Amino acid sequence: MIQQETDCLFCRIVRGEIPASIVYRNDHVVAFRDITPVAPEHVLIIPLKHIASLNDLCPEDESIAGHLLLAAEKVAEIIGIRESGYRLVFNTGKDALQSVYHIHAHLLGGERMGWPPFPGSVTVHG
Ligand code: AMP
User: Fold this and answer.
1) Is the Cβ atom of 20 under 6 angstroms away from ligand 1?
2) Is 99 in the pocket of ligand 1 (CB under 6 A)?
3) What does the alpha-carbon distance between residue 72 and residue 58 come to, in Å, rounded to a whole number?
4) Rounded to two decimals, what is the model's pTM?
């Protein structure tokens, strides 16, 4: 039995109670398109288990953390950006503007990005 929260938006997507554009799913994670994309390709990868943020990840969740990373490469392949490149972002806490408290990796790509990713930053490598 996977631990879930009744009112968590992303738990509800996991349970199919809220529609989502799902691009990949396995026994541990689900990946779906962000409803407000900030890049040409923007997919969220979440664990089926409710874990609020990286700050709440326990040693017993080690395999879930691994599954999130392993899914990223599969999602990138599915949406066609594995070779062109992509970025994974885990917004954690208020300074990082985390708005949904169910761990999610933003997988971003589809065009050349800048670095570092802070407001006003203009540095672009490559
Ligand atoms: P964060 O701000 O890092 O917590 O990211 C939460 C993300 O969830 C945002 O990029 C939202 O656009 C996205 N989001 C919110 N509701 C939905 C939804 N129903 N389906 C897909 N993405 C969503």
Assistant:
1) yes
2) yes
3) 21
4) 0.94
Query: Which mutation among 21, 23, 44, 102 tests ligand 1's pocket best, with the greatest number of atoms within 8 A of CB?
Result: 44
What are the tens digits of pLDDT across the range 42-83?
Answer: 999 999 999 999 999 999 999 999 999 999 999 999 999 999
35 lines ligand 1 (CB under 6 A): yes
Task: Look up the CATH superfamily of 9-109.
Answer: HIT-like (3.30.428.10)
